[in-house]
Amino acid sequence: MEKIVIIYGSSSGNTESAAKTISSKFDSGMVDLCDVSKVAVGDLAKYSNLILGTSTWGIGDLQDDWEGFIVKLKEADLTGKKVALFGLGDSDSYADSFVDGMGIIYEAIKDKGCEIIGQVAVDDYSFVESQAVVDNRFVGLPLDEDNECNLSEDRINNWVNQLKPAFN
């Protein structure tokens, strides 16, 4: 398996913590962790496997550090790359915009020549609406540290086990 980069944006630390947990599920030395505020789009060229993570703020807003990066990401050549997404949200307080940030990133990359992997069924989640749902599946892994933190470890384990054979 080729090296993986996990790029995350985290305001409160929850997305960073999730990124570290996801990283720990892969073999040692296989993952580079990068805060989106400290990475350049050109850095993506050396990776075939990307995991992009964000939290959702307010009513469906992308995490602040992603705002500038996503503009550049829309211009990047992602041809041939495999990309998995994860997002954090609050399904109780923001049930109408649950993990919308993940959906915003998906919209930015879906036509960029990459293969998006790691979709998750909506069945085990309580929410009303999400920009991150396509064909009745989340475009990546949703996590709710505010209301369902007790489920995060199992969700991450299952998701990473789904990703491993799909990554190069």
Key features of this structure:
single chain, 168 residues, alpha/beta, Rossmann fold, seven-stranded mixed sheet, 4 helices, 24% strand, globular
Tally of contiguous helical segments: 4
The total domain count is 1
Would you tell me the overall average pLDDT?
95
The gyration radius over C-alpha positions equals 14 Å
The top-level CATH class is Alpha Beta
Instruction: Supply the helix-strand structural class.
Output: alpha/beta
CATH superfamily membership, which one? Flavodoxin domain
CATH-derived topology: Rossmann fold
What is the correct CATH architecture?
3-Layer(aba) Sandwich
Please write the string of helix (H) and strand (E) elements: EHEEEHEHEEEEEH
Distance between the termini: 5 Å
How much β-strand is present in the residues?
A: 15-25%
> Fraction of residues in helices?
25-40%
* Main beta sheet strand tally, sense and closure: 7 strands, mixed
Structure summary, number of beta strands: 10
Low-confidence stretches: none
From the spread of the alpha carbons, the general shape counts as: globular
